[in-house]
Automatic annotation (TrEMBL):
Domain Immunoglobulin positions: 21-118, 129-215
Organism, scientific name: Takifugu rubripes (Japanese pufferfish)
Compartment(s) where it occurs, according to its Swiss-Prot or TrEMBL record: Membrane
Keywords: Membrane, Signal, Transmembrane
Phylogenetic placement of the source organism: Eukaryota, Metazoa, Chordata, Craniata, Vertebrata
Protein name, per record: Immunoglobulin domain-containing protein
InterPro entries: CD300_family_receptors, Ig-like_dom_sf, Ig-like_fold, Ig_sub
Length: 320
C-alpha cells in the first residue's frame, strides 16, 4: 500500500484531546512501549510500526498480521482501539517511527513519534515501570522523574489531561504532587474498571506512557475455628483383627518368640505337673499363636492363656 501522511484520519474524532505520544526519552539498551490510537472503523485493519524519518520511505519493522520477532513487538487491543508497539534494546539510531494503519483500498495512514536516545545518563523523563496495577476502589501512584523544564501533566491517551494539583479523569480523582525535586507524583483514587488503559506523564515536550491495569480486589478467605472431635479408640481383640492390620513380624523377632516358648514350656513342665504332654504342647501352640497375633501385648496374652489353662486343669492349687 502507498504511504500517505494523514494524521487526522487515523485519529478522527479525538480533536481537543491528548492524541498520543509524540516524543519519548529512552536510555540506550532499555525498552519502551508506545500506544497508538486508531479510529473504530479501522478495528479489523492491519497495523504496523514503520521506522524512518520520512513517512514515504520508512521501512516496516513489525505488523499485527505477522509474528513479532527481533527487537520489535506489536499487539492490538481491538476493544480499546489501541495498538501497542515495543522497541527492545533501544539503539542510537532508533529515533524516528510511525504508527500506521493499513488501508485496504487507499493510502495507509500514520502518526509520527520520536525517540530521544540518551547514553551514559538517565533519560530526561521516565517512570519506574510502564505497567502499573491497581484494584477497584483503591488507588495507584506513579512517580514521574524529569530533568527538563516545563509544566507537569498527567493525561489519558485520547482523553483529557490534569495539571497540578488536583483534577479528575472520567470521574476518577487525580492528584499531582510536586513537592519533591526532579519528580512529580501522580495519585489516582477511587479506581474503576474502566480506568484501565494508557496514560502518560508529560513535562515540556516529552511524554512517558504508562499502562494502568485495574483488577477486582482479591477476596479474603474467612476461617472459623472448629473444635477437634475426639474419638476413643476401640479395643479390638487380637482374634478379630484383620490379617492386613496385624503387626508384621520379621526374622529379628524369632529369638524373642523362641525364648518365650522356652519359658512357657519350662513353666508347664514343672515337676509337680501330671498333665499329659499333649495338653502341654497345645498350650505352647496357643501361646505361640498369641505371640504372633500381637507382639506388643504378647506377655499379657501369654499370662492370660497360662492362667486360664491352669485354672481349668487345677494346676494353680498344685503350684501353690
Amino acid at each position: 500500500m502507498a504511504l500517505h501522511l494523514s494524521i487526522s484520519l487515523l485519529l478522527t474524532g479525538l480533536t481537543g484531546q491528548s492524541l498520543g505520544v509524540t516524543r519519548v526519552s529512552v536510555k540506550a539498551g532499555d525498552s519502551v512501549s508506545i500506544p497508538c490510537l486508531y479510529h473504530p472503523k479501522y478495528t479489523s485493519h492491519v497495523k504496523y510500526l514503520c521506522q524512518g524519518y520520512s513517512f514515504i520511505s520508512c521501512s516496516c519493522a513489525v505488523k499485527t498480521n505477522q509474528q513479532s520477532s527481533g527487537r520489535f513487538l506489536i499487539s492490538d487491543d481491538r476493544e480499546k482501539k489501541v495498538f501497542t508497539v515495543t522497541i527492545k534494546d533501544v539503539r542510537e539510531g532508533d529515533t524516528d517511527f510511525w504508527c500506521v494503519v493499513e488501508i485496504n483500498e487507499g493510502s495507509d495512514d500514520g502518526t509520527y513519534f520520536q525517540v530521544s536516545v540518551t547514553r551514559g545518563k538517565k533519560q530526561t523523563l521516565y517512570v519506574d515501570h510502564q505497567e502499573v496495577t491497581g484494584f477497584i476502589g483503591g488507588q495507584t501512584t506513579i512517580k514521574c522523574y524529569y530533568q527538563n523544564s516545563g509544566q507537569a501533566k498527567w493525561c489519558r491517551v485520547g482523553g483529557p489531561c490534569v495539571t497540578p494539583s488536583q483534577g479528575s479523569i472520567n470521574g476518577t480523582t487525580v492528584f499531582i504532587n510536586e513537592t519533591l525535586p526532579r519528580v512529580f507524583t501522580v495519585t489516582m483514587s477511587g479506581l474503576k474498571m474502566e480506568d484501565s488503559g494508557w496514560y502518560w506523564c508529560s513535562r515540556g515536550d516529552l511524554q512517558m506512557p504508562v499502562q494502568i491495569i485495574v483488577r477486582e480486589k482479591p477476596s479474603t478467605s474467612k476461617f472459623s475455628a472448629q473444635p477437634e472431635t475426639c474419638t476413643s479408640p476401640e479395643l479390638v481383640s487380637p482374634s478379630t483383627t484383620n490379617e492386613a492390620e496385624k503387626p508384621s513380624t520379621t526374622d529379628e523377632d524369632a529369638p524373642n518368640r523362641c525364648e518365650g516358648e522356652v519359658l512357657i514350656t519350662r513353666a508347664v513342665r514343672s515337676p509337680d505337673s501330671d498333665q499329659p504332654r499333649k495338653q502341654q504342647e497345645c498350650l505352647a501352640r496357643e501361646s505361640r499363636a498369641a505371640v504372633q497375633a500381637s507382639s506388643v501385648n504378647s506377655v499379657h496374652l501369654l499370662l492370660a492363656h497360662l492362667f486360664y489353662w491352669c485354672k481349668q486343669n487345677g494346676c494353680l492349687n498344685r503350684i501353690s
